[in-house]
Amino acid sequence: MTPDTRSMRERMLAGDLYLADDPELDELSHRSEDFQTAYNATGSRDGAERARLLAEWLGGVGEGTVIRPPFRVDYGGFITIGARTFANFGLVALDVAPITIGDDVQIGPNVQLLTPTHPVAPEPRRAKWEAAKPIVIGDNVWLGGGAIVLPGVTIGENTVVGAGAVVTKDLPPNVVAVGNPARVVKEI
Hints:
This protein is α/β, with parallel strands linked by helices. The chain is built from 4 helices and 20 strands. A hairpin with a 4-residue loop joins β19 (about 175-180) and β20 (about 185).
């Protein structure tokens, strides 16, 4: 068997087990914390500065996108957000794997997008091994306040996720989903 010579960052982005306290990842995390501090200190009239920071910090951000502080991420560089997307106060987007958010998405307050996974077995968990699965949010999705999207989930375009819903599996386009776990209750 060939030893795995990939960096922890490469392993992390591939969805394989990686060590969260790896020095390279630690440095990326510290850099992100610096951006978060600057971004979250901006005032309501600092739209141009917020846009500049997002463009420098995130993997990609579309024109006209607004994210109200506070905004918390692991790294930032693994998040892409389309145009005209709006995120209300308190978005947490843990981008241990890529997070892709489409155009015209509406994100309510205190929404969580969580890509990390952890081993169930105690020994690898104690040794700080983690993994992750990407999240994809389609165009024109509305995530109600307090919604939680779990690792590996894709939400189809035009879908509405009700406030407080916990999305544990993919949702198709053009539906309304509510509850814990989120379930489709209506087609649009």
